[in-house]
Amino acid sequence: MNELEFDNLLEKARQFRRQGVRGRYAPSPTGSLHLGNLRTALFSWLQARLADGQLVMRMEDLDQPRVVAGSAEEILSDLRWLGLTWDEGPDVGGPLGPYDQSARTAIYDHVLSRFRDQGLVFRCYCSRRDVREAASAPHGPGGLIYPGTCRALSPAEEEERQARRPDRSPSYRFLVTHEAISIDDVISGNYSENLAEDVGDFVVRRADELFAYQLAVVVDDALMGITDVVRGADLLSSTPRQVALFNALDVEPPRFWHVPMMVDDSGERLSKRDGSDSLRVLRDERGWDAPRVIGHLAASLGWVDPGSHLSAAELLQELNYDDLKSPACPETSRA
User: Global pTM?
Assistant: First the structure.
């Protein structure tokens, strides 16, 4: 891919963005969907449909070692069983694909090269252990802050580090600045971070040469013309980093909707690793039908009474756009 091709993709995405709301749901095919994933999918679908917009399905399968065979097909089948549909995606195509991240690595390569030419990224030879053990590494709200060990290496210093670890490829980190980046989240309100003080230079391509989530998701949202991102509140703290990358691409960031996390009856957030609240278990072992699942998800957000049974289409008729802006506090996932 060259600069002209990339710029043409950006312009095409901008044209679609100007046509109206474009939401997206972007699951990772690493196992069965649990109720927390399903609630985000339902929320994304409602947000796009109530805005008379388009919904994009994107399969975030970039981390191939974690992909479970058959999981992507299962996810799409489960969502359709619930009555959730999309307008573009890996199974239906569309004008801004491909919609599988694993088919988009040439695009990420180009963006990394562009950032490298602009002096926005640098090679880093530090392992996680190096960062953790660095005497100068401070702690911020999100944990360890990268101390800048490799951000200004001379050619001789970089050569010495390469020689010290010839079997290790460097990662690439995005060079952050001392400025506050704020977002006005539709649900969570204002959130701000100074990336230099709270995060440090962050990884955009890992040492195993896989592109990091932060880079891939921004490039995809930019090139798919996404106007609205609905996702779990656990990702709120990553948003300023993504806004920095949108700014580097000269692309307007989307609106963000960070939905409260769904928890189990012990107060723990749901996880695919547990599996007890996967749709497959609820449907095949506990006998839940689609209206019961939809009703349970909607009740957990305060939209309907507990115990309600209704289809996704019926829920759509019950709500208006403003209802989405103030979901209730998370409730337990159990019936």
Answer: 0.92
